Amino acid sequence: RTTMKSLRFISAEAFVSNADFARKSLGAVAHDLFPLLFKASYLLEQGEVIHDLVENWPLFDFNMGKLLGATLDYKEDLSHRTCSVCLESCLTGLRDYVLNQSSPYMKKLKVVDLTGIKDVEVQFCKCKKTMGRWARTQLLSKLCSELLVHLQQAQCNPGTFEIRINVLIDLFVTERNYEVVVQALLKKCSCPLKICCVAFRSDNLTLQKFFYIIKLTDPSLLRKLEIVHNVHLEMEHLEMLFNSIHFPLLMSLTLPARTFNVRRFTATDEQMLTNIGEKMGEMTQLTELSMSFSILTGRIQKLLSPLKTPLKMLDVSNCSLNHADMAFLANSFHAKHLEALDLSGHDIPELYPSTFFRLLSHCSSVLRSLTLEDCNIQDTHVNMLILGLSPCQKLQEFKFIGNPLSSQALKHLFTFLCELPMLKNVEFPVPRDCYPIGITYPIDDASICRFDHQKYERVAEELNLILLQANREDVKASTPLFGSYDAAVQETNNELGAYLIKSFKETLEKFTTSFNKMS
């Protein structure tokens, strides 16, 4: 599929395709053409031209999302191209904007917004080398520190120290890039490039380091906070975080697995949970909450009832919810506002079928994403599921892998899914009849790949044919056995893998030591 280009855009492509000529001619280019030339250069991966455009940027702001998004001259959105050549050229160009003393333009740049860059699985850039969120965090931090060193050592124009550019970015910090990010944040006051953290993700970090760096980010600006995987944050630490730091603009909060475990609650823990709920209630912008793999049985109301703003996204997958929890969700003021809901890991048909369908009917007019993985949905439940999903006319994404459904039931369900006009993405399970007889659900990791692959391929073809015959080529159907693509995990999987091996080794050594003492 080719996207139409205006004559202006075609001319811009021709201009930047000769990098030497374009770089020499920038001084004669009208200011309002810089955004057009930037997008053309990005499309053609002209790194040197991108660098020089940014180094000489004549406008007040530089917003990556807007510059690369759909424009009248070229409607294709390039913001999902995290091309390493282009992004590195952008960031080094920004550093050199500060250092450039011979620029013909008066330095007007005040705000650089890098938050519009989207990390996706499939890249279309020619170099095929991406620069993810972690690497962008690393490079910007490194360039800020280098810039300061250079300014302190070189004889710079006094005006250089007057430059103040706010750089809005989504930071992603792990053990491996922690030091360089801390150094950049500590020196923010004296650096012309001011890192402004809009979203913060931490993984594989000790609690001490997490608490230290989160205070450096200026939490008053933070809109999204993700504490994931290998940050061992438990309920008492979360209460400490909320008591010591205010997040007035926070819209989205993701907590790591096992933050809550009500099975070992004391009276003190109950009070702690109440305090956390009240603190979240003070976050008047909070509309997205993810608390997967915590044990929250019977406590959803205590945690969510203090919220004053309705949630648009809720992930309570594998949280051992009971009927009271589901009843609260179905009847709460959040229900009519939920655009994304994840209830994976709950035996919905057995535990609370009618309450779940009441919740579904309440959010049906706005629901865009529904995830029901490992929910024990069987063939006998498909007609009821179709009935519940029928009003969800805005549904764009439906994920239900890990459910014991037969090939026949999947075909029946797909025939219905074709009727949902906004649907774009479906993640469906390997049919039960592709596995050996007697397989038990949920299927463990050791058995998950032990199915008849040829039979699965035949069924997948038939399901895609159902979509094709209904003119729904726009729907992507897949079976990601080990979960959906996560750009952040993909980018740092080597570090996380090494951490897990180290943790396993330490646990093994402790066990061996204890065993030897017993012997």
From TrEMBL:
PANTHER family to which the protein is assigned, alphabetical: LEUCINE-RICH REPEAT-CONTAINING PROTEIN 14B (PTHR14224:SF27), SIMILAR TO PREFERENTIALLY EXPRESSED ANTIGEN IN MELANOMA-LIKE 3 (PTHR14224)
Family of the protein in this entry: Belongs to the PRAME family. LRRC14 subfamily.
InterPro entries in UniProt: LRR_dom_sf, LRRC14/PRAME
Keywords: Leucine-rich repeat, Repeat
One GO CC annotation: cytoplasm
Gene (UniProt): Lrrc14b
Coiled-coil annotated residue ranges, if any: none
Protein name as it appears in the record: Leucine-rich repeat-containing protein 14B
